[in-house]
UniProtKB/TrEMBL annotation:
Coiled-coil regions, chain positions: none
Domain GFO/IDH/MocA-like oxidoreductase: 142-250
Protein's name according to its UniProt entry: Gfo/Idh/MocA family protein
Any single Pfam family the record assigns to this protein: GFO_IDH_MocA_C3
PANTHER family named in the record: BCDNA.GH03377
Amino acid sequence: MTRPLRVVQVGAGAMGLAWLRTLAASGDVELAGVADLDVERARAALRETGCAAPVAGSLGELLAAVEPDAVVNVTVPAAHTAVSVEALFAGVPVLCEKPAAPTLAEALVQAAASEASGRLLMISQSRRYYAALAEYRQLIGRLGPPGLLTTSFFRGPRFGGFRDEMDQPLLVDMAIHAFDAARYLLGADPVSVTCESWNPPWSWYRGDASATATFQFEGGVRYVYNGSWCADGLETSWNGEWRAVGPGGSATWDGEQRVGSSLDGAGADLLVPPGEHEQIAGALVEFVAAVRDGTVPSGAIARNIGSLAMVEAAVRAAETGERVSIEELLARAHAEALTLPVREEIHARLASWDHVSALPAR
């Protein structure tokens, strides 16, 4: 398929606006429609972004009316599973905003739905698509096997809306970006985690907006995430500030364009120019290529399970005060997924799995 993909977007909120602009700027796709429970909000989003397309109150209406080649799912996390499963079983591949689902069990349902339907479900872990991150990964590789990787993240955004009411806004909605990047940088998966989360007295969030998590990865390396979403002043990048320590020295990334290292006993500082397609534009490019040539993208739902498992494990560790085993967490999530009311084809696929099969290569 060389013509532009006809794409339907579901969700027209704040992130929906960003996606509409990205779709409009791409020569690889053509916007075929926008669905939102609030049809007037969908129309307003189209006006604001200068796009033109049919609107509807549900995905089902547009699937029947325009027969799209793909769906971009930008609904709230609680709606991700229903929207993605509907599209997959209508024969349409899906690019979905992160996190894949509110729970690991629901994400396993999505992975089973993708397998059962034979259609791609890709999660947009948009912060993987930085040229500086790729350069940083190469630097870490030159250090030798790292013993420690850290992320410091401090910002004070005032979003309003669903994030303000989440139990764990930082860990669930934001930390997944860093957790996913850690898996990418280390080329390994986590084994266990300890975590403490809390909400400072001045926080404008209902749930815990601050957390410190320590993951043990395969090979014994530790990854430490330390962050707050109610930290005004002296803010870090949205990607946080990173440090890796290995036998060859240390390497840093400021979360934007600057990477540095102490390789060969001499300090090095490199400014990496932005790539042609970064953030959600990078996710869209990879998705389109995967739809066209059948390759498995880095964000395929089965590959993304490991990043969501880190989130759920950190939340459970924060709530219990105990070290959480990722393998045991996956086993519980698999058992829970088998009890959920899902299509027969999805249940059959879940039942055929050994739970660890849902945590494939990065």
